[in-house]
Amino acid sequence: MKRFVEGDDRKQVALLPECVDDYIGQDNPVRIVDVFVDELDFTTLGFSGTTPATTGRPSYHPGVMLKIYIYGYLNRIPSSRRLERECQRNVELMWLTDRLAPDFKTIADFRRDNGAAIRNVCRRFVELCRGLKLLSSDMVAIDGSKFKAVNSRDRNYTPGKIDKRQQQIEESVQRYLDAIETADRTSPTGFDAKTVRLYEKITRLRQQMRELNQIKKQLVKQPDRQLSLTDPDSRSMTSGGKRTGTVGYNVQAAVDTKHHLIVEHEVTNVGGDHGQLSKMAVAAKEAIGKPGLKVLADRGYFSGPDIRACDLAGITAYVPKPLTSASRKKGLSTKRDFIYLAKTDEYRCPAGERAIHRFTTVENDMTLRVYWTGACPRCPLKQRCSPSDYRRIRRWEHEHILEAMQRRRDRKPEAITIRRSTVPHVFGTLKHWMGATHFLTRTLGRVNTEMSLQVLAYNIKRVVDILGVARTIRR
């Protein structure tokens, strides 16, 4: 083996063994994990086991377990069993944990028992980013994405799925019975064994039918008429233009538009984004600590009460209004064709007539003012306006907030591009790290904890890319 780079003999005993610290470079991100965790106040954050018991076997310090998990999610090793193996053979983890190697059950129990504290650690790192002046932008983008749960589609039930499955079972039973009847008439040689198998299949199908009837009774007790057997909190959700649903969770995230740091996140089992805007925006404002905040979101977040709540909280929202008017599909005039005159509190219709206020009503907890004009029956444009006798215009009592937001969007057309280039990048990275898999934990609280570890690892990597290891440790 001459003229090749040769290594040391693995059986050679060194007189002065090398220090483990020599194997960890000064620019290794694992040093940031060590410094960050050592500075945490585990009692204040809510970790259990911060005060060791005076009797029994000594326990591991929460800081050691937290370092293992942060390292695991930084390196795409979320499994407790894999982390146990890495603690025994990975030099970086040996350095990080001082050669401690907890078993997988201890590692898994730490994540299960300290969910709230781990989420507090994620918020603490956002505070650190704010102290490092990395959240200097006054704009965040909010969006949601569907992540798969442990529950498969076959273990998720809705009334529609049960009816379809029962229909398939009835058709299969009838097909098998017809095959048995045909066999009895023709009586071919050796068909008895096949007849027995058909009867066994029919028995299994009828057992499935009874199980489906029991599940149908349980669905009546569910508030959303949906039942998941493996992960009870997971729900079937449609994503984008996909026809098939994903059984999982809807992860909401507020992302800084300058450095793409995740400012706030939350895991929900609600399939849509409607009603999530104000909650995420207010939480993002508290995390950034700025008096004024601009929020970008897509059409799925458009909600009058949500946008008003943002306005009351000093948050400027940029949300496009969905074009869902039935009149547009029919080729009729829409509400946008009617001009509101604030001074006289009336609308001017496309024909130039005045639609005055007639009465006030309440629909879906929203106070609406109703307008129409008396000139509708004799209007020459009536065929292009409404098939009813009078075209009624409904106006929300806080409609001026939505109109002001629309004017802001018209002055800032690049808001859509900024949002599209911010949040999808973050969700794409997180799903790439997870691979073609799903959350490892079950129930909403534990999935939220797992997502917090993913977000913490993502933010750490972003800070390393922005500042570098040495500068981050120093600051």
UniProtKB/TrEMBL annotation:
Domain Transposase InsH N-terminal: 19-112
Domain Transposase DDE: 349-463
Polar residues compositional bias, start-end: 225-241
Record-annotated membrane-spanning stretches: none
A family per Pfam: DUF772
Region (Disordered), start-end ranges: 223-246
Protein name per UniProt: IS1182 family transposase ISBusp4
Source organism of the structure: Paraburkholderia sediminicola
Lineage: Bacteria, Pseudomonadati, Pseudomonadota, Betaproteobacteria, Burkholderiales
